[in-house]
Design goal:
With 290 residues, this protein is an alpha/beta fold. The protein has 9 helices and 11 strands. It is globular, with a radius of gyration of 18 Å. Bound molecules: flavin mononucleotide.
Length: 290
């Protein structure tokens, strides 16, 4: 039998099989990011379908990180009740569910957030809005937003959390030399660009302890000139894996990557599938994947 049907475990989280429903924005939350019966029903149907692990659509950890409308929020304790209903329902249907924690950085939508987007650098040409380069105080705020959101996820009964560090969102922007042109300790070579992600992970661990699954979704490549390349992605993942990360999901592309954007289309033959297979080998060789 194919290995994908075999059970596995990620830091104490038992999974019946290795099928994962990758995070997918459903557009089913309310205007303020609250969970709805429709969203819960969708998650229950996924669990009933037998997928080993469900990852929620990207949930914004702070209002200023919201990317799109009707996106799930995890930025405030008053959202806990709805989130708890979601995890209870999924568990009742025999499923496992992880919350994807996200901040959209330069791609935040000011019409929703009420403020200009922030990012590692005030680069031009990627947003209609003027981007503000993050100060060290912004970095501290974002770290605290992620760790508080992770704590909420745990309290709401999620089986773990996944950091969204792919697709050109905030943590991916820091990893990418295209978006990150900082001259301080959060920029430069990959050791500097991964620093905020390591500190976010450290902050989360201080809130949820060691026995709680923390995953990451990371770009193998940005597929933009001057963007993140495979070597740096592997180095970042290895660094994170050595500092308490439990699993890595590979992805790639950004909204600026043309045909190689994160929503790949035109997959018509088996040979078009598993397009990150070669990249996965590189991650495995550095023992970042289990
Ligand atoms: C409608 C839609 C919404 C998506 N929302 C998210 C999301 O919230 N978080 C995320 O990490 N990826 C999101 N994705 C990307 C998918 O999870 C996945 O990464 C993508 O389909 C490509 O698969 P790959 O990562 O294996 O290349 C979304 C894709 C689609 C089509």
């Amino acid at each position: 039998m194919s290995k994908v049907f075999e059970s596995t475990m990620i830091n104490g989280m038992d999974l019946n099989n290795r099928f994962v429903r990758s995070a997918t924005w459903e557009g089913m939350a309310t205007d303020d990011g609250s969970c709805t019966p429709k969203l819960i029903e969708t998650m229950v149907r996924l669990a009933e379908g037998g997928v080993g692990l469900i990852i929620t659509g990207h949930a914004y950890v702070t209002r200023e990180g919201q990317a799109g409308p009707w996106q799930l929020g995890i930025y405030d304790d008053r959202l806990l009740n709805g989130l708890h209903q979601m995890t209870d329902a999924v568990h009742g249907a025999g499923g496992k569910i992880v919350a994807q924690l996200a901040h959209s950085g330069v791609f935040a939508d000011p019409a929703l957030t009420g403020s200009n987007p922030i990012g590692p650098s005030a680069i031009r040409g990627v947003s209609k809005h003027e981007i503000r380069e993050m100060t060290s105080s912004d970095i501290e705020h974002v770290k605290s937003d992620f760790s508080r959101a992770a704590k909420r996820a745990m309290l709401a009964g999620f089986d773990g959390v996944q950091l969204h560090a792919a697709h050109g969102y905030l943590l991916s922007q820091f990893l990418s030399p295209y978006f990150n042109q900082r001259k301080d300790g959060y920029g430069g070579p990959i050791e500097g660009r991964v620093r905020i992600v390591l500190e976010v992970l450290e902050g989360i661990r201080s809130q949820v302890g060691d026995a709680y699954p923390v995953l990451i979704k990371i770009n193998t490549r940005d597929f933009i000139e001057g963007g993140q390349e495979l070597d740096d992605a592997v180095t970042a993942a290895a660094e994170l894996a050595g500092n308490g990360l439990d699993a890595v999901e590979l992805s790639g592309g950004t909204g600026l990557s043309g045909k190689l954007n994160p929503v790949r289309t035109g997959i018509r033959e088996e040979s078009d599938e598993a397009y990150f297979r070669d990249a996965a080998v590189a991650f495995r060789e550095r023992r970042t994947l289990r």
